[in-house]
Amino acid sequence: MRKTTLVAGAAALVLTLSACGGGDDSAAGGGSGDGSGGNGAAAGSLFKDAGALADAASQSTSAKKSAKFDMTMAFAGQEMTATGEGEFGDEPKISMKMSMPGGGQQFETRMIGQTVYVNMGGSWMKSSMDELGQGGMQSAEMNDPTKLLEFAQKAGEITDSEETTLNGEPTTHYTIDLDFQKLAEEAGQLTGADAKMFEGIDAAVPMEVWLNSDELPVKLTMDMSEMMKQAAEKAGGAASQMAQGGMTMEMTYSDWGTPVTVEEPPADQVQEMPAGSLPN
Description:
Blueprint: H1 2-20, H2 50-64, E1 66-75, E2 78-87, E3 93-99, E4 106-112, E5 115-119, E6 124-128, H3 147-155, E7 156-166, E8 169-179, H4 184-191, E9 204-211, E10 217-223, H5 225-235, H6 238-242, E11 247-254, E12 270-272
Parallel strand pairs: 6-12
Antiparallel strand pairs: 1-2, 1-11, 2-3, 3-4, 4-5, 5-6, 7-8, 8-9, 9-10, 10-11
Helix pairs in contact: 2-3
């Protein structure tokens, strides 16, 4: 149970980092879009190229570095929610409180650099991203906060765009289809699964992005249901039934640029987890 919770917390942190788009300004570079000049689309225009959108959002979030966020992940009919704040970059500092499905267990997770702390209502447990690896989670690039924006750059096509409002704030809303065949290796890294299980999957992954007037993400959603369904059918057994409930993620952001304070727990409240000996 402890290891499961640690891994779940780490996975949520990875997704949080992935969706934020901070870090190295060049991390999502290489896109080209009409009217993108410099930091993105000209005022009053909409991106037509997913790479240009990723560039602009990455540069804007890199400049602001920090934000507050809320996340909802749904899988197989169950829902995990989280709220927190963080400073994103090469050495991230993230703090979030999470509620897990199946009894609503609540716990707090902090990430400072490559170290993860989890508190399930008692002492803190400490581990590294390497120890929680699950395959690719230990990869340095999975801690790159531009990862999901890189997905859009590598395999995304903007299928629709509009100027709209979100919570009373003017935004530009983009609908993007991700070609999963171009992302099979990254999917293996993100989930910790063998990339071979994703071979032959022919699915589009719908992604939606809302940017404010400063080209900062204020909402991001992904629907991985079809991809997971095909992967589960390939795996067979109970996995196929589990995937019937779909898999979606929604993240919202606010207060970009607001300073955050994320500290290590007191040393006398931390239980060290030796490498390779995480309890189940």
